[in-house]
Amino acid sequence: MKKIAILGSTGSIGTQTLDVVRENGDIEVLGIAAGSNISLLEEQIREFRPRIAAVWTEEKAKELRVRIADTDTEVVEGMDGLIQVSTMQGAEILVTAIVGMIGIRPTIEAIKSGKHIALANKETLVTAGHLIMPLAKEHQVSILPVDSEHSAIFQSLQGNDRKAIHKILLTASGGPFRGRTQEQLMEVTVEDALKHPNWSMGQKITIDSSTMVNKGLEVIEAKWLFDVDVDQIQVVVQPQSIIHSMVEYVDGAVLAELGTPDMKLPIQYALYYPERRYLPGDRVDFWKLRHLDFEEPDMDTFYGLKLAYIAGRRGGSLPTVYNAANELAVSQFLKRQIKYLEITEIIEDCIRAHKVIEHPTLEQILETEAATYDRINSRR
Ligand code: NAD
Ligand code: MG
Questions:
Q1: pTM of the model
Q2: What's the pLDDT tens digit per position in 235-247?
Q3: What is the number of the ligand 1 atom nearest to the C-alpha of 148?
Q4: Which ligand is nearest to the CA of 171?
């Protein structure tokens, strides 16, 4: 039995990870952690019988303790709880399916305790990649990508020399607003932005996909995972989301991974790597599909993507500013406190105002996040 723990078990990636566990029947879930959906957490505890379950707030933890008093699962809370799940004895892989840079500390602690990381939580790598990648090397643990594009790149790298990478071709669906102008985006509502054409995901990443900030985060994520310069990463819009990304080698060969859009494939691949398992679901039918389309991304309208290249190229604390500004701006947009186009305006403003710290420590990353939040909050 493979033994895993999951941060963010009640979310889109978390529940699909549990689907993969259920369908395969040979993985044991030792720990789970979630924010506040304790009804679902209770169901998960009853089905998977983890040793510990972490909840973010003290109040919800208390409530959960009462609800599952008849089980053997221990309920823990807060950041300490997340870290307990991340470092728990016996777990081989930690699936990081929590959303946001709150995942940094638990991820670092998991690596220090020798866990392999199945990484969905891209915000952690974007802000702390310079700490995480060397730490993973030091502790000889793998960072296995769960993000579909990065999984596709990882799959396309199998059996090849990484030194022979010429370019990474990172595909993007273009989101629900592909082809629109800035003017047409002025009145976008929360409901409009939450309708993704190909993928069903958590709210934050769905908004990020619509602004193309998700692709920006993925450019920086790829830089860390595959040790390439951001300028070696080219974003290619592939509206059908069939090609999940590609690698161009020095001899001109391009290798890609294709499939129907289903996150269970990258999740399962990360959990069983290097083994491939049967996965039920739709297959690509090329007779029906007939053609695939490609476009250049519109980085003038969706300049959140352009800003990611600026932040990724400059490095240091700038990617933290890019990410933190986006996290707060998106949550304000979801609460209808700001307009859609302000998300990218806020990121740009924070990036321009920031004085870069080279090679920031964990403390400096968290201070940069707090300073970015202060700047945004003082506008209102
Ligand atoms: P989601 O919003 O559906 O789920 C987030 C999970 O994190 C929930 O279980 C939530 O309870 C938990 N969580 C949030 N705050 C927490 C806290 N303070 N303490 C403990 N738990 C907390 O998000 P998602 O779409 O599953 O995305 C998760 C991560 O995976 C993100 O980083 C996202 O960018 C990445 N990702 C998601 C997809 C996808 O298809 N959904 C694809 C690629 C990458
Ligand atoms: Mg992705």
A1: 0.98
A2: 999 999 999 999 9
A3: 43
A4: 2
